[in-house]
Amino acid sequence: MVDERDDLFYTQAALQAHQPGEGRITVQPTPANGSPAALAHDMLYALGKRLAPGPHSPDVWLDSVNEAWLAAAAWGVAMGVRHVVVPQAHLLTIRRIDQLLAWRESTGAQLTLLWQKAPRGLPTSLARVERRISGRTQFETHLAEPGPIPARPSFPPAPPVIAGAASPVVGQAPGLQPRGIGTASMRPGRRTHSCAGALATAQLVQAAPALEIASEEARALAALAHPLIAGTLSVLAFTRAGLGSLRFTRDLDTTGDVCAIKLHGVGHRYCPLYTVPAWARPLLAGARAHHRLTGQPGDSVFGPVLVAEARHLRAHAERLPRLGLTRLAAILVP
Fold first, then answer.
1. Which residues of the chain have pLDDT under 50?
2. Per-position DSSP letters for 199-249, written without gaps between them
3. In this structure, are strands 260-262 and 110-113 parallel, antiparallel, or unpaired?
4. Neighbour count for residue 89 (Cβ, 10 Å)
5. Using CA of residue 62, residue 65, residue 70, residue 75, what is the dihedral sign?
6. What angle do CA 61, 66, 67 make, to 5 degrees?
7. pTM attached to this predicted model
8. Which of 107, 109, 154 is nearest to 281 (CA)?
9. pLDDT per residue over 96-121, tens digit each?
């Protein structure tokens, strides 16, 4: 949208278009911010995420351009963002415009840039735009159009189980029996190729209920900027499991609707299935989307945050003392 006269109407319309619940967000670039990851941070802020402040912030991980944009893409996919509007786009460098275009390719969302100066300054990377619009009515209509992604949280199903993996056997449930009892198919001394995923387990056993937490604590977890940290701490909060139980959590250990998650004990002697509470589902969907965007489906979903003594997790756990996760985040079973 070219707004050569910098009409206040277009800026106001862009700001009013910010409706995350409808899958549409407005990203306001922070002026004169020279940080390479600044625009990704602005995107995270528009998505309702807040980076921890301070020179020794546990979110220093997101100072990396690649990590910050990966986190923004994961949240965009998990939250069902279908349309992103960016006012003052003429103030962005070519590099940051390219970052926006790359984010668009990763998420499949529609991107609208509000170029508020003469169009002769448009960079060559925007010469191939699908559509250029003009006029107040056309802009309002454009903002109201449905985007390419449904305006709802996106919970894609896990990929199919690899052929040759062990399948659950009726009468030998691989998930939760009564709480505290090991799984029949994973008892010590019994040889197996793999532990069945959450979907297969949920067809045989009932998931254990999630522990309740206060709504303000759930909001604090939802505001965490990194999807893996938010996902990991949310699992610790509603299961009270240790980090060791998350070391081997795969994509297929979360059901497609993100209503259940399966954890794994040492040697798969005890692999319980837990119900995922409604507040935690978008957070686990974000962790899953982050994992898939890295292109390493066979690895542990939460593995990247369990390295280096999980210091990022422990730092965030300490910032949420009411949840009492510090001890759980400090225990890492080898």
1. 159-193, 333-334
2. HHHHTTSPPBPPPP--HHHHHHHHTBSSHHHHHHHHHHHHH---GGGGTT-
3. unpaired
4. 24
5. positive
6. 35
7. 0.84
8. 154
9. 999 999 999 989 899 999 999 888 88
